[in-house]
Specification:
By secondary structure, the protein is α/β, with parallel strands linked by helices. It is 44% helix and 16% strand. It contains ten helices and eight strands. The strands form two sheets. It has a five-stranded mixed beta sheet. The chain has a three-stranded mixed beta sheet with strand order 3-2-4. Helix 4 runs antiparallel to helix 6. The model has no long low-confidence stretch (mean pLDDT 93).
């Protein structure tokens, strides 16, 4: 019987804004927007304090400032963020050589072969989060699951600064209550179309089955 894989998705929380808050103590606890400061500037990262006002990445900076007039706008420092990203990766590679970066602030790790020396997926995730906080003074959310898709879902559910494990055999239990938008390829427009047909949760879509979904919505 094949051994279940153990995949981690490590995602740095509000990475650019968190680095700015770390390096500038006067910004801690305050809403911070990292991005362009000109008229056509765009938010690269919003701190969690700013997100409470509805600010988010890829939003025009002018709109974000209207939503949160008290926000501090900080131009990005990509050189600094890249250097910190390399430090994070060095921590991840202590646990496995199988590290797959997705972007500057997130990566998948296959730790299936690391259990004997490093512990199970939860133990490894806890150690990674602890070391990132101790060495870099930053927070990371980690998802643990049998595959990449579920590990990414788990880390999203863990945010901010958390850990979520989806055990093998409990995939449906974890997914069924979630909105269909957690599935790769279902964006806001597709989710709206599905909702119009009464399909709002993963369980609703699963109940249709592959043939039922194809007959109702087409091949895509």
């Amino acid at each position: 019987m094949p051994v279940a894989r153990t995949i981690l998705h490590v995602d740095m929380d509000a990475f650019f804004a968190a680095v700015e808050q770390r390096d500038r103590p006067e910004l801690r606890g305050r809403p911070v927007l990292v991005g362009g400061t000109g008229r056509r500037g765009v938010v690269t990262t919003a701190s969690y304090e700013a997100r409470r006002f509805g600010c988010r990445s890829a939003m025009p900076m002018a709109q974000a400032r209207r939503l949160c007039p008290a926000a501090v706008v900080v131009p990005g420092r990509m050189g600094v963020y890249s250097a910190v990203s390399r430090q994070v990766r060095a921590i991840l590679e202590r646990y496995t050589p199988d590290v797959e970066p997705l972007s500057i602030d997130e990566a998948f790790l296959d730790v299936t072969g690391s259990a004997r020396l490093k512990g199970d997926g939860r133990s490894i995730a806890e150690s990674i989060r602890r070391e990132i906080r101790a060495e870099l003074s930053l927070a990371a959310s980690v998802g643990v699951a049998p595959n990449k898709f579920l590990a990414k879902v788990a880390s999203d559910l863990a945010k901010p600064d958390g850990l979520r494990v989806i055990e093998p055999g409990r995939e449906r239990q974890a997914l069924d209550p979630l909105p269909v938008g957690v599935i790769f390829g279902i964006g806001p427009r597709a989710a709206e179309r599905l909702a119009g047909a009464g399909i709002r949760r993963v369980a609703d879509l699963a109940a249709l089955g592959a043939e039922g979904a194809r007959a109702r919505f087409g091949e895509a």
